[in-house]
From TrEMBL:
Organism the protein comes from: Pelagibacterium nitratireducens
Protein name from the UniProt record: Thermonuclease family protein
UniProt key word Glycoprotein: no
Keyword check for Hydrolase: yes
Keywords: Endonuclease, Hydrolase, Nuclease
Domain TNase-like: 48-165
Cross-referenced PROSITE patterns: TNASE_3 (PS50830)
Lineage of producing organism: Bacteria, Pseudomonadati, Pseudomonadota, Alphaproteobacteria, Hyphomicrobiales
Segments crossing the lipid bilayer: none
Length: 178
């Protein structure tokens, strides 16, 4: 008898094995949606993931209301390191909002002197206001050429599909016909 036939016969033949009997009687648990994300305020030193994501006390947090370029896109590394310089040695306070973004908490994050991290990144021209989520709160802080410089982030906000065409090594638009 072949190996797989023996395995199938073992699994589907009633026997005296208690392990097999337990295995067959276990029903899958009902998976409930996550309802109770932490709310309120988280405070502590942070670890910067990219231009709009940080980690405080093992909790991933997305900065509310802005869009920074991904690490592999033009200006992505510069955006990350600008956020690192802002946060270095500082205790960051995150005011959690009820939204979720790719299983990350969304929060307004502040430096000890009260400056908003999102506003600082937009003011530097390394992130864009995302009016859909901010209501235009940071738009007046954008430098006049920020949307041209961060054109991939701008395209994503407008729902254009060019964003998904760029991988880790692509920095130029694809040539027609490729």
């Amino acid at each position: 008898m072949g190996f797989w036939r023996r395995v199938i016969a073992f699994l589907f033949t009633p026997g005296t094995s208690s392990a097999r009997a337990e295995f067959r009687t276990v029903r899958p648990a009902r998976i409930e949606p996550v309802v109770g994300w932490p709310s309120g305020i988280i405070s502590g030193r942070c670890w910067v993931i990219d231009g709009d994501t940080i980690v405080i006390n093992k909790t991933r947090i997305r900065l509310a209301g802005i869009d920074a370029p991904e690490l592999e896109h033009p200006w992505g590394q510069k955006s990350k390191w600008a956020l690192v310089e802002l946060c270095k040695g500082q205790t960051i306070t995150a005011r959690i909002t009820p939204e979720l973004s790719y299983d990350r908490l969304v929060a307004q994050c502040f430096l000890p002197d009260g400056r908003d991290l999102a506003a600082e990144l937009v003011r530097c021209g390394l992130a864009l206001d995302w009016p859909k989520f901010s209501g235009g709160k940071y738009r007046h802080l954008e430098p006049h050429d920020a949307r041209k410089k961060l054109w991939l982030a701008d395209a994503r906000q407008k729902g254009r599909q060019v964003f998904s065409q760029y991988g880790a090594r692509d920095t130029l638009p694809p040539k027609p016909g490729t």
